[in-house]
Design goal:
Layout: E1 2-8, H1 17-22, E2 30-34, E3 37-46, E4 50-59, H2 61-68, H3 94-103, H4 105-108, H5 116-119, E5 123-133, H6 137-145, E6 151-158, E7 168-183, H7 185-200, H8 210-218, H9 229-236, H10 241-260, H11 264-267, H12 284-299, E8 303-307, H13 313-319, E9 326-331, H14 334-344, H15 351-354, E10 357-361, E11 376-380, H16 391-402, E12 406-412, H17 439-453, E13 455-462, E14 473-480, H18 487-499
Parallel strand pairs: 8-9, 8-11, 9-10, 11-12
Antiparallel strand pairs: 1-4, 1-5, 2-3, 3-4, 5-7, 6-7, 12-14, 13-14
Helix pairs in contact: 3-7, 7-9, 8-10, 9-10, 16-18
């Protein structure tokens, strides 16, 4: 992974002042250890007329995977070859942004005790990034950098130069130039720190709430007025809506303060927090998790399966309650499990807590011996993502094979969709939903499942129970009967699964 920064000068203002500004002497090479590899700084050229500093980042793929997996603790997802063989050691990404902030931290803040006036003065700069992932293409690259005063040259990298018909890859060669009098070195480094991971649209570490502060510090003076502010904040914060919303609100305060030539604190005084008693509605996702936790607690479940765990929100809620002694999240998507691992911070988890949680990759369309012997299983907003003809397979894998004592199934109530003002008539709530059931359809399915596999079932409304259309979410709570199933019922179910 490689990046160069060049500047020009003369006898009065030699270009080699770049070494003072970066706090790295042109006559020496620098080596710095990072958590994911080694950073080298060297100067391919250093004269009074022109000086170039090169940052070379050697990424250790093994260290990258081990750090992401918490060094084997916490049951992180199974290793895959793609974790070790990928573009991370070569393409500019958040790894390079972290290296910039670590190696050139003082320069990024605009601090230079040796030449303070030079640090505050704009420089003629040229930045070259040979390999940059650009999700959005050359147009987005220009849209991000040109409003900041950069002259942008973007050259797409072909998939294979021997086969031009294959077209271009998602990588580009980037050259940024700014004439003298436009940007300081610190401003340029802050642009790169924010925008490199934005273009890659990925981060190698879990994005926590303190990332908002990092973004606003690096974006001071330019992000509030950037025409692509929404794209930048959303991608930089890994598309976490709550963090993006917080960053957007704070940037709007900065914009208003700049417009009024006043301080942000004077603008942000419209609400007296002590007298603000208006109750905010609880999101449906939160109420759904609360209903699930209450049902599991009432059933006395300690060892719980979260089947189709997605990004781990329910796993986190279960982990926060010490009454749940073992939690297993299962999902078919390796990407979702990776996000869940980061959300749970498995790599930073204490040993005792890590022993309570495990993430597994698996399909609910197949039986899995690893899922047997648990007190409860939860299918939260899962069944509607399956094609109807695959439901018998899921049914047998959960109720016929794993057979936990308690099974909780939640799914949208399609009758309630008329209450969603933003949902067009006839549309489902999510583009991936294969179906959405009425209360009658859901109850009929649940009763058939309970009858076939020896379970009793009760139904619980989740959310406000509308007298006309019912609740927004419906939940079925299955409890296994102590009576032994007949061999005829088991054989019938297996035949249904094979037929499906």
């Amino acid at each position: 992974m490689f990046l160069t920064i060049s500047t020009t000068g003369d006898a009065q203002n030699p270009a080699t002042d770049l070494g003072f500004l970066l706090h790295k002497h042109p006559d020496r090479s620098y080596l710095g250890k990072l958590s994911h590899g080694t950073a080298h700084v060297l100067y391919p050229e250093a004269t009074a007329e022109r000086c170039t500093a090169a940052l070379l980042l050697e990424v250790d793929p093994i260290a990258l995977v081990r750090r992401a997996k918490g060094k084997g603790r916490g049951g992180a997802p199974d290793a895959a070859l793609a974790q070790y063989v990928n573009d991370r050691p070569y393409a500019a990404s958040s790894l390079l942004a972290v290296a910039l902030s670590s190696v050139f931290s003082s320069a990024m803040r605009g601090v230079c005790k040796a030449l303070p006036e030079r640090a505050a003065r704009p420089l003629p700069l040229r930045v070259e990034v040979p390999a940059l992932p650009a999700r959005g293409g050359a147009e987005l690259v220009r849209a991000l950098f040109e409003p900041l005063g950069w002259m942008v040259t973007v050259t797409p990298v072909p998939l294979d130069m021997r086969f031009p018909a294959w077209g271009d890859s998602r990588y580009v060669q980037l050259v940024l130039e700014v004439p003298d009098g436009k940007l300081t070195l610190g401003e340029a480094l802050r642009h790169l720190y924010v925008l490199l991971p934005v273009l890659d649209d990925a981060k190698h570490y879990w994005v926590s709430p303190d990332e908002v502060d990092k973004l606003l510090r690096a974006g001071e003076g330019w992000l509030a007025g950037h025409p692509e502010q929404q794209v930048i904040t959303s991608r930089y914060l890994a598309r976490r809506r709550s963090l993006t919303r917080e960053a957007t609100e704070r940037l709007e305060l900065v914009r208003l303060a700049d417009a009024d030539d006043t301080d942000v604190e004077e603008i942000d005084n419209a609400v007296d927090e002590e007298s603000d008693t208006e109750e905010k509605p609880v999101p449906l996702a939160v109420r759904r998790r609360e209903a699930i936790l209450a049902a599991l607690t009432a059933a006395g479940s300690g060892r719980v399966l979260d089947l189709g765990c997605g990004q781990g929100q329910l796993v986190q809620a279960l982990l926060d309650d010490v009454r749940f002694t073992e939690i297993v999240g299962v999902d078919v998507s390796m990407r979702a499990l990776t996000v869940a691992s980061r959300r749970l911070r498995l790599d930073r988890m204490g040993e005792r807590t890590a022993q309570r949680v495990k993430l597994l990759q698996g399909s609910l369309a197949y039986t899995d011996k690893r899922l047997k012997g648990y007190d409860a299983a939860v299918l939260s907003e899962v069944i509607e993502h399956l094609d109807p003809e695959r439901l018998p397979a899921l049914e047998y894998a959960v109720f016929g094979s794993a057979r936990p004592r308690t099974v909780l199934v939640t799914t949208p109530n399609v009758e309630y969709n008329v209450r969603w003002e933003t949902l067009p008539a006839g549309h489902v709530r999510h583009g991936d939903h294969r179906f959405e059931w009425t209360r009658e359809e859901f109850r009929a399915w649940a009763h058939r499942v309970a009858e076939r596999h020896g379970y009793g079932v009760e139904f619980v409304p989740v959310g406000d129970d509308d007298p006309e259309v019912g609740p927004p979410t419906q939940m079925a709570a299955f409890t296994r009967s102590e009576k032994t199933r007949t061999s005829g019922r088991t054989e019938t179910t297996r035949k249904e699964v094979r037929a499906a």
